[in-house]
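Notes from hallway chat w/ T.B., transcribed later so I don't forget. T.B. wanted the structure written out for a chain they're using in a teaching module, and asked if we could keep both sequence and structure tokens in one place. Agreed to drop them here.
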Amino acid sequence: DTSLDLGVVPFDPINATIAPDPGAPGESSRVRYANINFSLEIKDSKKIEKVQTIKIQFLDALLSILGKKRFEDLTTVQGRYVLRSEMISAANKLLKEDLVTNVFFIHYMIQ
């Protein structure tokens, strides 16, 4: 049997400033925030420790990704799908293998 057991790696909640909304003419721009809690699904539960070793670098990459997103980018179903794809790509790049298969959002609030 060559099937692998899936694993889940939980992360602490993260708060990040996202790209500000350009205010209406004469108004200052509005600062926006993302508050998310998530877990990464990996295709081999035996490699959870490997994911633990890149947590700090991954969170740094995630802050960079979120900082470039606008409110409108994060509040649609398509926007969440794109963010999920970017998170998977960032994690796998740091891991140097296609280990992360999904992102589970436990809490997702954009304000």
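Follow-up for T.B.: The radius of gyration is 16 Å. Might be a good example for the class.
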